[in-house]
Amino acid sequence: MSDETIADRIERLVSEEHQLRTREQQDSQDADRLEADQERLRDVEIELDRCWDLLRQRRAKRDAGANPEDAHVRDANTVERYWQ
Q: How do residues 5-57 score in pLDDT, each as one tens digit?
């Protein structure tokens, strides 16, 4: 997977995140829709973290003279436990 492909995925996820946040306000009167939007939002946020992590790994490997193709997508549990 190329850096450009990952960046495109990030852009699509950010767009979906914005749509979900907008809908979240509109769905505040419909508990089922609100819950579905919030669940999807959590999934999108995790996927964004995983994409950013992969992109950072690739850049770090490239900067260190290693092959960026050796970077791999880490599981959500690993990425979500990073200290910010």
A: 999 999 999 999 999 998 887 877 888 888 999 999 999 999 999 999 999 99
Long-range CB contacts (within 8 A, 24+) of 31-37: none
Q: Measuring CA to CA, how many Å separate 41 from each of 10, 29, 64, 82?
A: 14, 18, 34, 19
**What six digits make up the tokens of 53?**
């992590």
Q: State the pLDDT confidence band at 63, using cuts at 50, 70 and 90.
A: very high
Closest CA to 11 of 38, 48, 46: 48
- Single-letter code of the amino acid located at 80: E
Q: Is 83 helix (H, G, I), strand (E, B) or coil?
A: coil
The angle subtended at Cα 3 by Cα 16 and Cα 20, nearest 5°, is 5
What is the Cα–Cα distance from 56 to 6, expressed in whole angstroms?
11
Can you tell me the distance from the alpha carbon of 4 to that of 25, in angstroms, rounded to the nearest whole number?
Answer: 32
